[in-house]
Amino acid sequence: MLGELQVEVRQTPQQEARIARVQLRGLHVTLAVPEHLARQKPSLQPIELNALWVEEIDVPAGEGKPICWKLLTTLPLESYAQACQYVRWYSYRWLIERFHFTLKSDCTLETSQLQHRDRLLKALATYSIVAWRLMSMTYQARLTPEASCDAILQPEEWRLLRRKFTPKSRAKTPPTMHQAMLWIAQRGGFLAPKSDGEPGLKTSWRGYTKLHHMLEELAL
After folding, report:
1. Measured distance CA(51)–CA(26) in Å, rounded
2. Domain ranges of the chain
3. What is the largest CA-CA distance in the chain?
4. Which of 217, 220, 215 lies closest to 156, judged by CA?
5. Which tens digits make up the pLDDT trace of 18-55?
6. Burial, 52: exposed, middle or buried (Cβ in 10 Å; 0-12, 13-18, 19+)?
7. Are 161 and 184 in contact (CB under 8 A)?
8. CATH number of 96-219: 2.60.120.10, 1.25.40.20, 1.10.740.10, 3.40.50.720?
9. In the predicted model, what is the mean pLDDT of the chain?
């Protein structure tokens, strides 16, 4: 055994976010070439990999299914520190999945109908910035809901939101991150009942797009 580690388990509709205690085990493995492929392509060689077994221990009652990750990597696995780094990287996979989801569904990259490689790369670069900003705003508002929204929004953005949702307000200070993102999501169709939890990326994207359409109209 390489050692133990504490890993953050993300929040889902079925469970609260928590810190899991896991044990790390590693070994070197060789993946043989499947027989049918070996017959078709005799030049194929076995693959040398490192295997990392991540298993949760002492799971509190009612905390959901224990973590059990079986990871394969070509990276060196010679120390506890290396194992911890790989587990940290893997624990971020859901953020990467959400990033790709945002690119495909919210930024509509797959339906852009661009045919040339250079144009696709330029669109990907632009949409990646948009997706990153949207995710940063959404998740930062969840991490620090009471912080000022001027860390994620420009003054003209939050002022227009306040004018739209609280037209009688005379407040000069920015609203909180939570309030600002709630307003943005409501512009995108989020109904804001308590049972719905926090706004998601899709309604935040729609709302943020509408917000900038409003800003463009005011600038005309």
Report:
1. 5
2. 3-91, 96-219
3. 78
4. 215
5. 788 999 999 999 999 999 998 999 899 999 999 999 99
6. buried
7. yes
8. 1.10.740.10
9. 87
One-letter amino acid for residue 80 of the chain: Y
Cβ count near 210 (within 10 Å)? 15
3-state secondary structure 169-211: CCCCCCCEHHHHHHHHHHHCCCCCCHHHCCCCHHHHHHHHHHH
> Token digits for 7?
């890993």
Residue the block writes with tokens 């943020």: 208
HSE toward the beta carbon, residue 71, CA cutoff 13 A: 25
**Residue 79 carries which side chain, given as an amino acid letter?**
S
Length in residues, the chain: 220
Provide the β-strand partners of residue 25: 53
Q: Look up the pTM and report it.
A: 0.69
pLDDT at 14 over 60: no
